[in-house]
Write a sequence for this structure.
């Protein structure tokens, strides 16, 4: 267990829960037993793992990784997600980077340096969309404002990944709502429809 425990990054004095240990153990086993994943999984660590109820008797495991390790994760992410979904009892697996949002500076706040754009709420929410859908490309977005003032955003994904990703669209919507409080519908554009300035 000590080797699997090294896959989890926690602040001093904070112990991982059972789910985090289970994820770490599975990642470590894949590192040991799958040679073509070994190099990238050796450096991979997780920050946290949360199980979410996404409705219709389905559950998802949301796994947070440190931003500096995102590049290594993305080299193996599609394969790693498939392998973990087999091991985690048919729960959907979603990876996102652990990003921090900094408050908008006010006149009274003393901030030594300008807030980086990557730490704004808008930027972090955009990056969450990219993290969840990777490696599928987001080809367009549209926001509808309802009569009551509520907003629903439609996110259009590349049709070439339709068969491999359609089963997870509701999961993406539930996870994104849980993380941001925003309603997003994920879809694949119909053939012959312009999305994001291009004809699908």
């Amino acid at each position: 267990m000590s080797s699997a425990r090294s896959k989890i990054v926690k602040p001093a004095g904070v112990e991982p829960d059972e789910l985090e240990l289970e994820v770490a153990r599975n990642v470590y086993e894949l590192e040991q037993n799958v040679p073509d994943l070994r190099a990238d999984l050796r450096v991979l660590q997780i920050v946290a793992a949360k199980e979410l109820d996404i409705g219709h008797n389905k559950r998802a495991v949301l796994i947070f990784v440190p931003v500096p390790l995102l590049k290594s994760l993305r080299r193996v992410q599609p394969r790693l997600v498939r392998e973990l979904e087999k091991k985690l009892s048919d729960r959907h697996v979603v990876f996102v980077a652990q990003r921090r949002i900094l408050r908008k500076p006010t006149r009274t706040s003393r901030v030594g340096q300008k807030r980086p754009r990557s730490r704004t709420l808008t930027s972090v929410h955009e990056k969450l969309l990219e993290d969840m859908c990777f490696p599928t490309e987001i080809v367009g977005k549209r926001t509808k404002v309802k009569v009551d003032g509520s907003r629903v955003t439609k996110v259009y994904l590349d049709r070439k990944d339709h068969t491999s990703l359609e089963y997870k669209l509701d999961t993406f919507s539930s996870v994104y709502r849980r993380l941001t409080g925003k309603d997003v519908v994920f879809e694949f554009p119909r053939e012959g429809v312009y999305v994001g300035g291009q004809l699908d």
Notes: The chain has two domains: 1-98, 118-191.
